[in-house]
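User: My instructor asked us to take a sequence, write out its structure as tokens, and then describe one feature of it. I'm not sure where to start. Here is the sequence I was given:
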Amino acid sequence: MSERLNELVSKTMRLARDTGVQIPLPPPFFMKKRLIIFLSVVCLAILVLFTEVGIKIKTFSPLYTQIKPDVILVLGCGLEGTKPNPFLRARLDEAIKVYQNGGVNLIVVSGGKAANEKIAEAEAMKTYLIENQIPQTKIITENQSRDTIENIRNSKNILASFNYQNLIIISNDYHLRRASIIAQKNNLVATFDGVAVPKYGLQENIFFLREIVASIYHGYL
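Assistant: Let's start with the prediction itself. The structure tokens for your sequence are:
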């Protein structure tokens, strides 16, 4: 078929030359075939990479310790007005549960103010904790961070002023692997506690796909 196509193209060009008609030369069939093969390989490689990173995120199992944490770090997520959204509430509820188990001296809530938010996430997180009987004196806000990297980095700077033994970082399950890699890169030793929000499964799946993209973008493969 490719030989027949090339023969037809050649005849058309000879006819155009003889009659003085200018006809743009289409790319040879084998060039199109190579392009299709190349694009197929690229798409397959991207699919394999997405799948591999996705599996690592899904199967990530942080090392838990039997020693109770004395400091909790809750990573920000997003607000609905001035209130934590369902995913952030789940993180805060988990922090409350860990606090109620005893031994916690400090809860750091980390999250700045996004362009579409009325207040910093950390301020809304602090208010939520206080409303749920966590003493205000136990809460420290980090309200400047704009992403997970800054969450970890800024919180580490705050924690440098405190004498603590065991830090636990709380986030959603899909977020834990990337948070743990960032913590490791910043020499922040911690264990991790993840939460899920089954009621919002579709949104969690969307966030999971976003985590894959973010992990690949930052090279957390």
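For the description part of your assignment, you could build on this observation: Helices lie at 2-19, 29-58, 86-100, 121-131, 148-159, 173-185, 201-218. Try explaining in your own words what that tells you about the chain.
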